[in-house]
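Tutorial, part two.
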Amino acid sequence: MQTFHITWITFFFCFFGWFGIAPLMKIVKDDLGLTKGQIGNIIIASVSATIFARLIIGRLCDTLGPRLTYTWLLAIGSIPVMTIGLANSYESFLLFRLAISVIGASFVITQYHTSAMFAPNIKGTANAVAGGWGNLGGGITNMVMPLIFAAFVGAGYVNHDAWRYAMVIPGAILLIMSFVYYRFTQDTPAGNYANIKREAVQKGSFWSAASDYRTWILFLAYGACFGIEITFDNVAALYFTENFSCDLKTAGLLAGAFGFMNLFARAIGGIVADKVGKTYGMKGKGWLLAGLLAMEGLGIMLFAQTGSIGFAVMAMLGFAMFLKMANGATYAIVPFIDSKNVGSVAGIVGAGGNLGGVLAGFLFKSETITYAEAFMYIGISVAVIGGLTALIKFDRKALPVTEQTLEVA
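Running the prediction step on this input gives:
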């Protein structure tokens, strides 16, 4: 349980560093004179490097172990977060945002480490709670970073300097957490990889995980839920500011409400998936995920059509519930696709989440498509992927013995 709590807290602060600049983008936009197209490129950059990082990190978890992998990721990732304030042009800011996006690979370690620490019948619940409470950082940062920025302004700094100094704080926290993770966690209940027999460690095979078509359907499914979540974390404050004329703090609070639902929604998805799995097996989990994605897509389409801020917030909270439950349901399935290569499967599926964010980012970059139209296209795509997810087939031979036993029980 110590490792569990340190893992989700660490993931929480990773989100804080990853999206710390998002609620301040209105200030950065005015400071650097950014265009809509340039902001779109920045949104894409903020999630793109994570795609490749998650593939690599998943493999490192299978070989080096989650403890050392997380320690190094935190230490290295803290650098661009603390130094993004050195950017003085669109090009340099884009490069810093690209470097920061590597921190998003922390999710794979979180899910891998949690899977290693808990029994099969509650992996979905444990993964969903850890992921959800960690994702909560994406909502809290929308609420807190404008206050940190305001504190620097109140201390006498102009906007040009205040947003730069504000980003030092989440970066410093990441550096501290790298020490905490190294000192107070271990790779498995049996101990660290370096201290247990090598034959007890599953070395894993990336190609085995990649050859299973179900891995790639979950890749798409996670892109349709988590990919849209990180996209919304990036654009929500700016959307409420420009479409409904909200001030920075109000927009941050509204955007934060979306992320705050991770406190319970993702956990509910994992808990429900585990209960469905006990009764209907993995097939039931697949149908649950498909239904959640379909409802998420419909909710996003409704959000795109709202013309008042009140209805917009209601629609946002509605689709957020289904989206975050789908996040939890996805990783209630992941540990059972290939039990010998959980890290590689988690890495591939996690990368799908970021690819979804990248593709959605291109819609928000377009000069000819409004943000509302972009959300409509996203909603349609999510619903279609939900239908595709319903086609996943699970057979007993492909499942670990522990999960087969659960199905019989």
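The two ends are 27 Å apart (CA to CA). In part three we will examine how such features are distributed along the chain.
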